[in-house]
């Protein structure tokens, strides 16, 4: 009796280049993908040397709120790739940025997949971001400001009342 064990290997980011037959007979080199998990809601991805179309797959449960944002090369060092584990004030920018216009769909029944076409052959810097995280950061910011401002305002009102009473 032969025992076979099957283990699921969780790969957070996978690239599936399309076959040459699908791309119209052109042999397109596979892109070189490097990625960095900034936090559970944000991944930085660098795509080098890819010509042609490919699928970029994120091994997270599918949600249509995952978005791709392309970052210009000169902005890579400006905080797009950094961030804290829970919340970063710089993540508020993703509320206003327009995501890459590409097809986002379910891959393998559960994962997020984006169809990317790098026909120009240029390198791409991409941030994969879970957009509700930006709204969480906004809510956290409003809460902190409220918690700080309300007591200060009440102290100011109290001090004003005490000064008026002394007169």
The domain count comes to 1
> Helical region count?
3
Average pLDDT taken over every residue: 77
Main β sheet profile: 4 strands, antiparallel
- Beta-strand residue percentage: 25-35%
In spatial order, strands of the major sheet run 1-4-7-6
Give the C-alpha Rg. Answer: 23 Å
The structure class reads alpha+beta
The best one-word shape is: elongated
Helical percentage:
25-40%
Return residue spans where pLDDT drops below 50 for at least 5 consecutive residues: 2-10, 19-26
Q: Give the helices and strands as they follow along the chain.
A: EEEEEHHEEEH
**Beta strand count:** 8
- Distance N to C terminus: 97 Å
Layout of strands and helices, then pairs:
Blueprint lengths: L12 E5 L14 E8 L2 E7 L4 E9 L4 E6 L4 H5 L12 H4 L6 E5 L3 E7 L6 E7 L1 H35 L1
Antiparallel strand pairs: 1-4, 2-3, 3-8, 4-7, 5-8, 6-7
Description:
The protein has 167 residues and is of the alpha+beta class. It has one domain. Helix content is 26%, strand content 32%. The protein contains three helices and eight strands, in the order E-E-E-E-E-H-H-E-E-E-H. The longest helix is centred in the C-terminal third of the chain and has 35 residues. It starts with 12 loop residues before the first strand and ends with a helix. The N terminus is likely disordered.
């Amino acid at each position: 009796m032969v025992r076979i064990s099957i283990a699921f290997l969780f790969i957070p980011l996978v690239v599936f280049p399309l076959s040459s037959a699908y791309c119209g007979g052109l042999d397109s080199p596979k892109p070189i993908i490097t990625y960095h998990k900034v936090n559970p809601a944000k991944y930085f991805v660098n795509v080098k040397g890819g010509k042609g179309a490919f699928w970029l797959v994120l091994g997270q449960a599918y949600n249509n709120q995952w978005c791709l944002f392309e970052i210009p090369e000169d902005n890579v060092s400006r905080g797009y790739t950094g961030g804290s584990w829970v919340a970063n004030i710089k993540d508020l920018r993703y509320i206003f940025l327009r995501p890459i216009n590409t097809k986002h769909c379910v891959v393998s029944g559960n994962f997020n997949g984006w169809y990317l076409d790098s026909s120009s052959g240029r390198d791409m810097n991409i941030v994969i971001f879970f957009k509700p995280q930006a709204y969480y950061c906004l809510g956290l910011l409003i809460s902190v400001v409220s918690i700080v401002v309300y007591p200060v305002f009440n102290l100011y009102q109290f001090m004003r009342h005490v000064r008026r009473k002394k007169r």
